[in-house]
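User: Good morning. I'm curious how NAI would be positioned relative to this chain. Could you predict the structure with it bound?
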Amino acid sequence: MKKNINKDIFKASWTYDEAPESTDHIQVKKQYELYIDGKFTKPVKGKYFDTINPSDNKKIASIAEATTEDIDKAVKAARKAFKSWSTLTGKERGKYIFRIARLIQERAREFAVIESLDGGKPIRESRDIDIPLAANHFFYYAGWADKLTYAFPNRNPKPLGVVGQIIPWNFPLLMAAWKLAPALATGNTVVLKPAETTSLTALKLAEIIHESGIPKGVINIVTGAGKTGAEIVNHPDVNKIAFTGSTGVGKYIQKVTAGTNKKLTLELGGKGANIIFEDAAIDQAVEGIIDAIFFNQGHVCCAGSRLFVQESVADTVIQKLKSRMETLMIGDPLDKNTDIGAINSKKQLQIIENYIKIGLNEGGEIYQPECILPKKGNWCAPTLFLNVSQSHRIVQEEIFGPVLAVQTFRTIDEVIEKANNTPYGLSAGVWTEKGSKMFYLTQKLNAGVIWGNTFNKFDATSPFGGYKESGFGREGGLHGLKPYVKFE
Ligand code: NAI
Ligand code: MG
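Assistant: Good morning! Here's the predicted structure, ligand included:
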């Protein structure tokens, strides 16, 4: 989609030409089966559901729906494989994980295009962030596989057994990598379920897993919606559940696993505070605000969805933010110029639109730049809400879309109190030239990840996770190994 880059200066004379990524090189089948015990298997009940492209709502492929019997088969296969996989040397396990990482790299372009087609995220992000980071996670944990005794000195770490992993739709391949890589490195076997709107890259990953020659049953990939997820959670022979998704489903899983022997880690929602002090480099901070809330259409658990600007610079920051928003390009996820792609599903678009209504009804002042949204598909303009306060629902609740709630503050104590006044505790950002102020805030803010003069930076070596209703357990880094081992 073409867009004027700055109407005032260029008087509509400059436009970006379309620059779509080619889809010639990708292979998408009409129908995808379950990957159980090293084979692509039809679902016992023979049911399939559609996966669609959220930028035009057209069907891409049929996906198998796993029911009770299929999950039981997958868990049995994983249990059987556990015996040999857990006793294989770490060095041998590491080789398979390395191979998966290399194969992702080899097919990175295909993965990136399919991720954008199936989920709606801009190709620039899937190409430069999701896919390379997914490969990095496998590389990183492959390196740990034969060094577990160094990771946990004198503690004799042992794998847990069969692990059930349920992932969301916002970073489909990357979340699969976050889950699989540490579980495999520590000697567990896995039943993994991708989210129902974005199963394709997990199923492509199943092809790579197959190609890697990893023993059958070590990784099983089953598809379906919440019901399928619940079958994994409730299966009696699963030793651990690792879940990333909504706080509501997280609470359900915690309830039904209570009193069982299942171990649990939950990575849930967030309402990250992005704090701009008057001494910050303002232009960089504005770029950081854009990245914090509009990256991946705001479908980010650690998004900086609450902005706090120090009063003395608030007018400048908001004016610069508004004019930067004017230049954002919204449209075809496969266009290399696109900044904001499609909203992942109709259901998610309804959730976001409903929050925008709530914000208006509560008296918030809305700002959206002029932009023409495509006619087909699910789209939401980047949105600011000014004149909101702590008690507004759009300030307290996770929206999971491109909607930013803006507040101001005067003192450091005030902003700490406001930033911590939420049921969540996943992420925060602090923008200041003063290192001492930044370190002071890292101690005071209740968040698992705090970025300094940047936002939404991820690395395989760095732990990630939350406090309070954002969940518990850490993924990434040395910390990410711990939820997959027990000590004898
Ligand atoms: P969801 O929590 O329902 O979906 C996440 C995963 O859980 C999917 O794979 C889904 O199939 C599975 N699931 C659903 N019900 C289940 C159950 N009873 N037992 C086991 N697995 C189950 O999230 P949904 O409905 O797609 O999105 C709703 C809201 O959740 C969003 O608006 C957003 O606020 C939040 N969300 C947060 C995420 C995060 O990373 N923190 C990711 C996805 C959604
Ligand atoms: Mg889809």
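Residues 33 and 199 are 11 Å apart (CA to CA). The first strand starts at residue 31 and ends at 32.
Let me know if you'd like a different ligand tried.
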